[in-house]
Please model this.
Amino acid sequence: MRPLLALAALIAAVAAAAPAAAQAQALSCDSTDERTAYFISGEVAGQRAWVQELPTGWLFALMPAEFGYDIRVFSGNIGAEGTVDLSAITPPYYTPNPRELYGWHFRNADNTGPNRGEVNAPQELRLFAFSPALEGTGGFRPPDQEVAPEPSPDDGRGWLRFVDYGLADLDPGETARLVYLNFTACLIWPRAYDPPPPEPIGFEDADIERIYACGLDASLRPDPWLQPPQFEIDVDLDGAWDFAMPIERIADGKRGIAICRAGTWLDVIGLEGDMGELTPAYFENVDWWAANPAGPIGQGAGGEPPPVAAGDTITIGKEGASSVLIYFDGERFRSYWQGD
Model:
């Protein structure tokens, strides 16, 4: 089935099924080799707009409307010349449309109670499409177009789920308005539209000199396989700066992390031996790291109570998979499984 027609069929199928919230839980937001998935959560109230910039430079927005909010995916800055709504291809090309988040969708025809199916309108789960091909066209697919345009494999898709919401104007005969919405959403698009990765940052000569001066063995070398290539941290809050740097073993390319404390004590993590559940094999899949300021540690995925760190910590992980916290307990470095 062609992509846009498949989306229309999915919208119809979901609208006929209940409850919509259960259907939303089954919707994934996982990136693949072909497509990027971007998860969003937020809340909006009153006549304010809610806007989130995507990595592509597009803007996902909930724009205030007479009876609630409209989903939009803008190609650029809102109101700027040439900016178009990439989600205008979402069927059907009449109201009610899944991008319309209106209060009356959840009320019966005379506004005396909840909508039990009397009013044909989408409910808590909204499925929409967006086409990057609309950029620069001035929006050649108007919402009132009766015949669906030829779909393209390059069309993106998305979903939005109502988590909580509030309505106003609930007296009989009035038209109910959506005045508050807490939501989760996901947008998925072909990787061809992802921005190019930034140029990797290397080491300054002084950085290399100081890691060897701290005791790094000559069989190892700094390697910027993680970005940024180093962190200045204080793992024990003694007031002396420590630094962490990704390294590799020259002989076999095995990767690890070197942490130099106060320019004197060196710890190498990841090359030899296990550190709790953190094994050298895990470093074969690590593709990101982050430095965390000192403070309480959140509950991890393994169910073990959060540890107490002496100072700043480091998180390493595999994008879309798992993450591990590395912390100093005052005597040695330890690991805490944080997420899957």
Notes: The helical segments are 3-16, 20-26, 205-213. The radius of gyration is 26 Å.
